[in-house]
Specification:
- There is one protein chain.
- The chain has 904 residues and is α+β, with helices and mostly antiparallel strands.
- Among the domains are: 170 residues, no CATH class; 151 residues, no CATH class; 83 residues, no CATH class.
- The chain is 30% helix and 26% strand.
- An eight-stranded mixed beta sheet has the order 5-4-3-2-6-7-8-9, with no helix packed on it. The chain has a four-stranded antiparallel beta sheet with strand order 1-30-29-28, with no helix packed on it.
- It comes from Aspergillus tubingensis (strain CBS 134.48).
C-alpha cells in the first residue's frame, strides 16, 4: 500500500456563518433489487449554502441543490440513485435540518429533455426536539408495478427516538423510542448509528451468533425475501467530556423490510437483538468525547473509535465484544483516523499524515501536513477523513473548504491492474519503521551498541549529550575532543579494529542534517523537498570515518532516517551526498579525501561525480583562458570590498590539479564495478557532450601513459602533470572507453552523423578515426609486450619463484657479507634507465663467473632459505613446519667443515 500525493477534487463552498457553520459529508448509494451499493460519489451539505454531490473517480460536480440561508444541518446527508427504467434515472438526497427532514428529488431523461427536473419535499418533526444524528435508507420489498416504494427513510434522533418515513416523506410509518433505549435515555445519548444489510450481517456480524440471526430474521423462512436491516446504536454518557469505554453501550436492532404501522407491538417495528457494553483496555482509561469518531466496517464486523491519541477496533461478532487492534500514540494529537484495511489505518496528526500498521505499530507511508494543498486561509486547518473507496484505493478527506483524495493504491498496480487485494501488514514492511512509546525505557540500545556495564552506558550517555550540545553550537573542535576522549588514550580505532556501526551512524546523524529546499516553488506536492547539508565538519572524526569506510552515502541516509522518525524520509536523490561535500568545500579537497578512502559508492553516485567534475573542469578551463577584465579607475582607487570578494571567489574555486585528481580517482573507482552497470549509469547521468569530453580525457591518459608510442619514437606533446595525476591503468582506460562508446550507442552516433551541422559531424568522424588509430597502436604495443613475455618466459618464471620463496621462507645465514645492493646496478641503454641484477664485474673489466648468469634447469630460485611449509607426499596437504624442524634443516644445510677419510 502506498500513499500518493493528494489531489484536489473540489473547492467546497464555505458555510454562510463562518464561525459556527459546519460542513457534513456522506456517502451515495445505488439501489437495485433491494440491494444497496456504494457509488464513487460523495454528498456534501454546507450550512446555509447548498447540498452538492461530487464524483470521485472523475472529479467533477454532479449536481447541486440550494438551501435557505438559515439552514443548519445536524448530521451527515444521504443520497440514493436509482434507475427506474431504461431512460429514467432518479436521484433522491435526504438531509436533516433542525426539526425537519428534507428531500431533494432529481430526475433525468423522464420527459425526453436533457435538462433535469428537480423537486423537494420535507417532513416536519413535532414529537421530538432532539436533533437528528442519522438519516439512512431501508430497502423494502420491490414490486414490478411500483416505482416509488422501493425503500423507506430511517431517521434517528439524539434522544433515541427512531422514525420511519416513506421515500417521498409524505407518510410517517411509525415513530418510537424503544423500551431498551428508554432505559438509558436519562444517562446516555446516541452518538452514532449504522445500518447494515442482513446479507452482510450474516457473513460477519452474525457469523458466530446464529441465535441473533434467527431472532433478526423473524418468521421469514426463505432467504432473500423481505430480509430485514440491522440497526446499530452507539450511545455515550450525557454531558461527559471524557468517556470510559466500559460506559459506551452498543444496542442492536432488527428493522423489518416492510413497515408495520398498524401494529402496536414495538417488536414489529424494531426488534431488539442485544445490548452490550464495550470492554476496558490496557492504555488510556478514557477517551475524549468531543473529538471521537465512530466507524463500523460491515465486512469484518468491526466497530472502531478514533480519538486524539489513537484508534481502537472491537470485533462485535464474538459473544462479547473483543478488542482486535489498538494503536495509541500518547504524544500525538490526531484530528482524524480511519480504517483502510484490517491492519492499516490512515491518520492526520500534528505534523504528518501517515498510513500506520496497527499490528506492528509502525509507519508505512507518510507526507507532511504542511504540504497538503489548502487555501491561504486554511493552512492551519486540520484534515478530517470521510470515507475510503477500496476498489479505487482512494481515501476522501477535507481540509478547510478543500475536498481531497489520497491515492493509496500500490504504484505497481498502475501498469498491471489486478483485482487481488494487495498484501499489507507484513513484518518486513514494519522493520525499521516502528513507533515506540515515549514512556518506554529503551534498554535494547545498550545491547545494540554492545554496552555491557553501567559504566559504559554512562560514558555513552555523556558522549551523546555532549555531542548534541556541540552539534547545535557547531563546535567542530569540541566535537573531535569529545569523540577522542570517548575512545581513550589510544585515539581512534584502526581500520583493522571492529567498530560498532551504531556508533558511527549516531555520529553521522549529528554531522549531517536535512534542510528544507527553499528553492522549490511546488506547493502542491505531497512530499517535502529536502536538501542534504553538513551541519559541522569535525576534521579528525570525519577523517577516521573515511579511513574505516563508514562515511558513505548509505550510512548517511540510514542515520538521517533514524533521526527523522516517526516520519519516513523519502529516498535521497542521487548526488545529494556529493552536493553536500562540494557546498562545504568548493575546493574539492573533502571530496578527494572521501574518494581516496575506503568509502563504497554506487555507479550512479560515481557517474554523478564524473558529470560534476567534467563540467567543473570545462568551466574552469574557459575561465583561465579568458583574459582578466581590466578595471578603469581614472585615477581613483578600486573598491576594496569588490576586490576582497573577487579574491575570496578565486580561492573558493577548485584548482585544476584537484579537479583532475578527483576525476582520475573517480575513473579508477568506477572501474571496479561491472561494465554493464557502468554503461547504464553513464548513459543516464551524462549527456552526449559530457561523454565525449570523458573520451577525450581517456585518450589523453592513453597517450601520456606511453601505451600508444614506441620506445624509439619521440614522446608526445608535453601535458601538464596535474591532468595525468594519478595515472590511469590501461585496463581502466580501455574498459571505460568501451563503456562510453556503448553509452552513446549506435543511435547516438547515427543521429550525430545525420545532423545539420557539418562541423560537428566532421569532428565526430575525426574522433572515431583517431580512436581507431590509437586503439590500433595500443593493441600493437600489447602484442609486442606479449611477444616479449614469451621470449622472457623462463626469466619471468624464475623471478616469480624467487618472489614466492622470499615470502614463505626463513632466512639462513650463508656466511656471505656481500650486501644485496652490490648485486644491483643501474645502466642506461638508448636513453632508457635499466636496473641490472647479477654479479659484479672484476676490477679488470672482465666478467665474473659466467655460471652466475645462467638460470637453473628447474627454473626455481636457488636459496639457502628454509621453507616455512611442506607438502605431504601422500595427500598433498600443506603443513606448517615446526621450529624444531626448521632448525634441523638449517643445520643440515650448513657447509661441511670436517675431513672425509677415503678407504681404498
Amino acid at each position: 500500500m502506498d500513499l500518493q500525493p493528494p489531489s484536489v477534487l473540489a473547492h467546497l463552498p464555505r458555510p454562510l456563518h463562518g464561525s459556527t457553520g459546519k460542513t457534513h459529508l456522506g456517502e451515495v448509494h445505488s439501489l437495485a433489487d433491494s440491494k444497496k451499493r456504494k457509488r464513487h460519489e460523495v454528498v456534501v451539505a454546507v450550512d446555509g449554502e447548498a447540498v452538492n454531490i461530487y464524483n470521485i473517480q472523475t472529479p467533477k460536480l454532479v449536481t447541486s441543490y440550494a438551501v435557505p440561508p438559515q439552514s443548519a444541518f445536524s448530521c451527515q446527508p444521504c443520497s440514493v440513485r436509482r434507475k427506474i427504467n431504461k431512460s429514467l434515472v432518479r436521484r433522491q438526497t435526504y438531509v436533516a435540518v433542525k426539526q425537519q427532514i428534507k428531500s431533494f428529488v432529481e430526475e433525468n431523461g423522464g420527459n425526453g429533455s436533457s435538462a433535469p427536473s428537480i423537486g423537494s419535499s420535507s417532513y416536519s418533526v413535532t414529537d421530538s426536539e432532539s436533533p437528528a444524528v442519522f438519516v439512512g435508507i431501508v430497502p423494502t420489498e420491490t414490486k414490478e408495478e411500483e416505482e416509488e416504494g422501493s425503500f423507506d427513510v430511517l431517521a434517528v434522533h439524539q434522544d433515541g427516538r427512531v422514525r420511519r418515513l416513506s421515500s417521498d416523506l409524505k407518510t410517517q410509518h411509525w415513530s418510537l423510542r424503544h423500551s431498551e433505549v428508554a432505559k438509558t435515555s436519562t444517562t446516555h445519548e446516541i452518538r452514532s448509528c449504522f445500518l447494515v444489510e442482513f446479507e452482510d450481517a450474516k457473513k460477519s456480524l452474525f457469523k458466530r451468533r446464529q441465535d441473533l440471526a434467527a431472532l433478526a430474521f423473524g418468521n421469514l423462512t426463505e432467504t432473500g425475501v423481505d430480509e430485514p436491516s440491522v440497526l446499530l446504536l452507539v450511545s455515550q454518557p450525557i454531558g461527559s467530556q471524557h468517556t470510559k469505554l466500559s460506559d459506551v453501550k452498543v444496542q442492536m436492532f432488527s428493522v423489518p423490510a416492510n413497515a408495520s404501522s398498524a401494529g402496536h407491538d414495538e417488536s414489529q417495528k424494531m426488534r431488539h437483538l442485544i445490548t452490550f457494553n464495550l470492554p476496558d483496555i490496557d492504555g488510556p482509561e478514557t477517551i475524549e468525547t468531543r473529538g471521537s469518531q465512530w466507524y463500523f466496517h460491515a465486512g469484518s464486523a468491526g466497530l472502531n473509535v478514533s480519538f486524539g491519541q489513537g484508534y481502537i477496533n472491537f470485533d462485535l461478532s464474538q459473544y462479547t465484544p473483543t478488542m482486535t487492534s489498538k494503536f495509541i500514540l500518547e504524544n500525538e494529537e490526531f484530528s482524524s483516523l480511519m480504517r483502510i484495511s484490517p491492519q492499516s489505518v490512515i491518520g492526520a496528526g500534528k505534523s504528518m499524515i501517515a498510513v500506520y500498521d496497527t499490528q506492528y505499530k509502525s509507519v508505512q507511508r507518510n507526507i507532511a501536513v504542511g504540504d497538503i494543498p489548502a487555501s491561504a486561509s486554511g493552512i492551519k486547518a486540520r484534515t478530517t477523513f470521510v470515507s475510503y473507496y477500496a476498489k479505487l484505493g482512494v481515501a476522501i478527506a477535507t481540509k478547510d473548504n478543500t475536498l481531497l483524495a489520497f491515492d493509496l493504491s500500490p504504484s505497481h498496480n498502475t501498469a498491471n491492474p489486478s483485482l487481488k487485494r494487495s498484501r499489507d501488514g507484513l513484518l518486513i514492511d514494519a522493520i525499521g519503521r516502528g513507533i515506540g512509546s515515549a514512556k518506554k525505557h529503551r534498554t535494547e540500545d545498550t545491547a545494540v551498541l554492545g554496552l555491557s556495564s553501567p559504566e559504559e552506558v554512562e560514558r555513552w550517555n555523556k558522549l551523546t549529550a555532549d555531542l548534541h550540545q556541540y552539534s547545535e553550537a557547531q563546535d567542530a573542535d569540541a566535537f573531535d575532543r569529545a569523540v577522542l576522549a570517548y575512545f581513550g588514550a589510544n585515539g581512534f580505532p584502526s581500520p583493522e579494529d571492529y567498530v560498532n556501526p551504531e556508533t558511527t551512524v549516531h555520529l553521522l546523524s549529528l554531522i549531517f542534517k536535512l534542510k528544507d529546499d527553499a528553492s522549490s516553488q511546488d506547493q502542491l506536492s505531497a512530499s517535502s523537498s529536502f536538501r542534504l547539508s553538513i551541519n559541522l565538519w569535525p576534521q579528525q572524526t570525519c577523517q577516521w570515518l573515511i579511513q574505516i569506510g563508514h562515511l558513505s552515502p548509505n550510512n548517511v541516509e540510514i542515520a538521517l532516517r533514524r533521526s527523522f522518525k516517526p516520519r519516513i524520509l523519502p529516498s535521497l536523490p542521487t548526488g545529494s551526498f556529493i552536493q553536500a561535500l562540494t557546498e562545504l568545500d568548493p575546493s574539492l579537497q573533502r571530496l578527494i579525501d572521501v574518494l581516496q578512502g575506503r568509502v563504497l559508492f554506487s555507479t550512479d553516485e560515481l557517474a554523478y561525480i564524473l558529470k560534476l567534475l567534467i563540467n567543473t573542469a570545462r568551466s574552469r578551463s574557459v575561465t583561465l583562458d579568458e583574459e582578466a577584465p581590466k578595471a578603469l579607475t581614472n585615477g581613483e582607487d578600486q573598491d576594496q570590498e569588490a576586490t576582497t570578494q573577487a579574491l575570496a571567489l578565486s580561492h573558493a574555486e577548485p584548482s585544476l590539479g584537484n579537479i583532475f585528481l578527483a576525476l582520475n580517482t573517480t575513473l579508477e573507482k568506477i572501474h571496479r564495478h561491472p561494465l554493464p552497470a557502468i554503461t547504464t549509469s553513464i548513459r543516464s547521468a551524462l549527456s552526449r557532450t559530457e561523454i565525449i569530453s570523458m573520451v577525450h580525457h581517456l585518450r589523453l591518459s592513453l597517450a601520456t601513459g606511453g601505451y600508444t608510442s614506441r620506445s624509439t619514437e619521440s614522446p608526445p606533446i608535453p601535458v601538464p602533470a596535474e591532468q595525468t595525476n594519478p595515472p590511469i591503468s590501461l585496463s581502466t582506460i580501455v574498459d571505460l572507453l568501451n563503456a562510453s562508446v556503448d553509452a552513446i550507442g549506435p543511435s547516438g552516433w547515427i543521429s550525430a552523423a545525420s545532423g545539420v551541422d557539418d562541423s560537428i559531424t566532421a569532428r565526430d568522424q575525426e574522433l572515431i578515426a583517431d580512436l581507431k588509430s590509437e586503439i590500433s597502436a595500443a593493441l600493437a604495443g600489447i602484442e609486442e609486450a606479449t611477444y616479449l613475455k614469451g621470449i622472457l618466459h623462463e626469466y619471468l618464471r624464475y623471478a616469480n619463484s624467487a618472489i614466492r620463496s622470499a615470502t614463505t621462507t626463513v632466512a639462513v645465514d650463508s656466511g656471505s657479507d656481500t650486501p644485496a645492493s652490490a648485486m644491483v646496478r643501474l645502466e642506461k641503454l638508448n636513453g632508457a634507465d635499466l636496473m641490472v641484477f647479477g654479479a659484479t664485474e672484476d676490477d679488470d673489466g672482465l666478467e665474473g663467473d659466467a655460471s652466475g648468469k645462467l638460470l637453473p634447469l628447474s627454473l626455481k630460485a636457488g636459496s639457502n632459505d628454509v621453507s616455512k611449509t611442506k607438502v605431504k607426499l601422500s595427500t598433498g596437504e600443506v603443513k606448517t613446519r615446526s621450529s624444531r624442524e626448521i632448525g634441523y634443516l638449517r643445520r643440515k644445510a650448513a657447509g661441511k667443515y670436517s675431513f672425509e677419510r677415503l678407504i681404498v
